[in-house]
Amino acid sequence: MPTLTVFLNGEQVGTLEQASTTRFSYSEQWLTKSEPFPLSLSMPLRPGLQTQRATLAWVEGLLPSSWEVRSRLAEAGGVKLTNPVALLGTVGLDCPGAVQVCEERAATEITEQQGSLEPVDDGWIEGRLEALAEDASSWYLADERWSLGGGQAKFPLYRSADGAWSRAHGSQPTTHIFKPGVRGVRLLALNEHICLSALGKVGLLVARTEYLRFGALSATVVERFDRHRQQDGTVVREHQEDCCQALGSTVAYETSGGPSATQICDVLRTEAVDDSGKRFAEALVAGYLLGATDGHARNYSIKLWPGGTRLAPLYDVASALPYERDPFNPLASRKIAMAICGERVIGAVTSAHWEKWAKLNRIDPAWLMDRIHVLATTLPAAIEDSFAQLDSDDDTLSLRSRLLPAIEKNCARALSV
Asked: Phi and psi at residue 308, in whole multiples of 5°?
């Protein structure tokens, strides 16, 4: 297949191709600039080919994990389903972080930032949500060139300063992601908004969300933390990668060989320029208290820029506590994705586990135990306040009746063990 050119904010970083292996190499122009920074922490700044493992992990993190979605992309783009580089080449004009990817012959579309906006109204958004409700693999429309990772159905739009929505074409960056939830997991979108809103209220850095209704349908709308609007209204991409990409892993879940909490702590301790290690520890505690069982490495991200790195705002946090137990569904299980000193069952992680984990990861145990106490004491009220900010309709009342008591119980148990 043709070689793909990789850009960060319109500046060429290197080339990507799929031959006998998946290969990426930095351009000399990028390596010799005044303040280069890596495309991924798993791909250090040096001449020559990066490792197959790290390159494939980076590519995989930019693409939907759903094989049904990928199959549609492959068919529409006339490429092989088993070739992730070719898939990325069909949708790479607006990727996670500051990344844009295209064939060399089409590079001017990125270097000259050729893009446009197509206004859409609430009726159009309702129709898009309805299409996803009927077919969760219908992420893309035929003319779209954006890419997002993960398995949940979603689509991005651009929001103007006055609140109007538009589809983004070409190299125009999107600003928000619409997430209607997962079929069979009732009110998951509302669940995610409530959990992230509550975490923000207790002082954690989170992606900003809104729970919005469009006609008969609703979605959690996430403001992209990898986008920044300047004073003149221009939207600029900010680079980030998920922790699977940072650690060169194509596997998300620790139980299947994916990164552990300790491995993420090691990266943050080595690379971060702030207290990201402590913020990650807080995030683990908060996720445990909320019963957020799907907190695997792909659901944590790291921001990269010339001055260093730091943990990105939290996202994709939803509680499994309102749902019936299902050992085959991580969104309804009773086990957290990353173990705390070997224990992952909700209700079984004790202060002894947390203290041991803190020492292992060079975090002050006294500080962590204090944070556990503060978070377990304040989270239930933050959950209640987040519900209070929404209309008291059947959905919010139903989820509140199942979620709030379960979190109160889990927090009380955490304070007693």
From this structure: 145, -155
Q: What integer is the mean pLDDT of 393-415? A: 94
Count up the domains in the chain and report the number: 3
- 244 and 369 together in one domain: yes
Looking at the fold, whether 94 and 29 belong to one and the same domain comes out as: yes
| 34 and 146 within one domain | no
Same structural domain, 105 and 137: no
pLDDT (tens digit per residue) in 46-95: 999 999 999 999 999 999 999 999 999 999 999 999 999 999 999 999 99
pLDDT at 142 over 90: no
Q: Does the pLDDT value for residue 377 go beyond 80?
A: yes
d(CA 292, CA 321): 8
Q: Are residues 93 and 148 in the same domain?
A: no
For 280, the domain range is 238-416
* Same-domain check for residues 345 and 250: yes
pTM above 0.85, yes or no: yes
pLDDT in tens, 300-335: 999 998 888 999 999 999 999 998 776 656 566 789
Q: Which of 170, 193, 223 is the last residue of a domain?
A: 223
Same domain for 344 and 373, yes or no, is: yes
The whole-number average pLDDT for the span 268-295 is 95
In a domain, 294, yes or no: yes
The answer to whether residues 246 and 390 belong to one domain is yes
Given 198, 223, 248, the domain boundary residue is 223
- Closest by CA to 14, choosing from 41, 48, 42, is 48
